Amino acid sequence: MKKIILTILIGLAWMPFLASADIYTDAHDFVYTFYLRYDNGKLSVDKSAKHPYDLIADTFEQPEVGENPFHVQVFGVNGDKIAEALFKIPTSSMPRGPVIVRAPYFANAGKVVFLNSKGVQLLTVSVAESSFCNDDKVCNADVGEDWKNCRNDCVQPAVTLPSASPSATPVPQEQGSNFMQIVVLAVFAIIGVVVGYLFFHSRRDTPPPAEL
Question: 11 or 163: whose pLDDT is higher?
């Protein structure tokens, strides 16, 4: 009985922490997907593809590339390198064929450069047409720039806390705060019941003092 009560108390003690946890549902990132062709050390855009690349709603993850990987570098519109990833090419037994290369998307990217394992540049693909952040130090909200996707142009807005005032209109409590109060009160109530139960149960089981 005491083990069951202890388990219940531990579970209830964690409830306020679980109730106050924030749940984040971030939107998908975007990934460049390039359609290329490798032919005996040369890399080019695959002419059979409708476009040199597509933007896919996904989160970029670096794939396994093995030994001597090739490099893909993303450069901003201002010429600065902002990202780099690795990719693999067909093996020596099949030195030519189509290659699909993925790279993380950036709203201020201007071009993507592909290099071999020795750092020699093989191909450059312009991606400026799919970028809307121009790094001009001006936050153009009308084209979608904000501090999350264009930090060189936009500054994160400061959070202004409301000042306490006796005449201020009381702010209604959120549902989460009410739920927290209910959980805390329920925990204390159950703890009181359990403590009372254990106290009276221990007194009932205590034998009366022996008469002299």
Answer: 163
Closest by Cα among 101, 107, 113 to 60? 101
- Full-model pTM: 0.58
Q: In the numeric block, which tokens belong to residue 132?
A: 């809307």
Domain coordinates of the chain in residue numbers? Answer: 30-143
- Give the H or E element holding residue 191: helix 175-205
Query: pLDDT tens for residues 120-134?
Result: 999 999 999 999 888
- CB contact at 8 A, 137 and 152: yes
Q: Which residue has the higher pLDDT, 124 or 209?
A: 124
Task: List own/partner pairs for 25-31 with CB under 8 A and 24 or more apart.
Answer: 28/57, 28/58, 28/59, 29/57, 29/58, 29/59, 29/60, 29/104, 29/105, 30/55, 30/56, 30/57, 30/58, 30/105, 31/55, 31/56, 31/58, 31/59, 31/60, 31/102, 31/103, 31/104, 31/105
